[in-house]
DNA sequence: GCCCAGGTGGGTA
DNA sequence: TACCCACATGGG
């Protein structure tokens, strides 16, 4: 591991410890969560997953065969529910038709091949595909997301408008291709992001990365010049 | 009442 | 390539 990427990891791990990701009991449930969590808080995803479980739909074949009206109603808490119901069934049907209903079978393939297979499915973009590869299949692929973009932008590592592939490449260059490390690092970024690095009002006080961070430094200095009380 | 959350796909210039 | 928008719930 090199430079800033190593320093950030060490600080986050020292503060938060192991995150035990992904929060799911099977690879298929993990993939369902990856689709449902798109632009939605995890709390709402948990409700949707519990609803699917209560109807026995956390398996590829039953989910693939269920009426879309039922699936949509069950995943309603996860927002965009018609769209996500369709995406879940597209994924489940792909597993049934191409892999005997086994996500493990699909994930046994070579990384680049499985990735392009996932990306070809409706509703699975780079982040969802990489999450499924890493957290569902143990492939050495670093997952980046909105928190990663924001947090490392505020630290001064890259521009706010950097794309997914460019961010991912920076991690792949800086880190050894270790799935265990990638797993923990991404989870730690999300943990820190939720707690300290939110979009509108970051809470830099107490953030383990504050001494590396421009936003935190600005908040600190401006409190002594312009924006301060009295 | 307002903002935002572990994105993706489709459209336009 | 670079933006813009639809999708459409629940919590702080």
Describe this structure in words.
With 230 residues, this protein is an all-alpha fold. The protein folds into two domains: 3-19 and 143-217, Helix-hairpin-Helix base-excision DNA repair enzymes (C-terminal) (Endonuclease Iii, domain 2); 27-137, Endonuclease III, domain 1 (Orthogonal Bundle). Helix content is 62%, strand content 0%. It contains 13 helices and no strands. It has helices spanning 3-16, 27-36, 42-54, 60-65, 68-74, 81-99, 103-107, 111-119, 126-137, 146-155, 164-174, 179-196, 214-222. The longest helix is centred in the middle third of the chain and has 19 residues, at 81-99. It is globular and about 60 Å long. The model is unreliable at 224-230 (pLDDT under 50). It binds a DNA duplex (13 and 12 nucleotides) through residues 33-35, 37-45, 47, 76-84, 87, 122-128, 131, 143, 145-148, 161, 186-187, 189-190, 193-194, 198-200.
CATH superfamily annotation of the largest domain: Hypothetical protein, domain 2
CATH class of the largest domain: Mainly Alpha
Rg measurement, Å: 19 Å
User: What fold name stands as the CATH topology of the largest domain?
Assistant: Endonuclease III, domain 1
Helical residue percent? 55-70%
Major sheet details:
none
Global structural class: mainly alpha
Note the gap between the termini.
Answer: 46 Å
The protein's oligomeric status is: single chain
Give the CATH architecture of the largest domain: Orthogonal Bundle
Shape: globular
Contiguous low-pLDDT stretches (5 residues minimum) are 224-230
Beta-strand percent range: under 5%
**Tally of separate domains:** 2
Summed up, the helix count is 13
Q: How many β-strand stretches? A: 0
Secondary-structure element string: HHHHHHHHHHHHH
On the 0 to 100 scale, the average pLDDT is 93
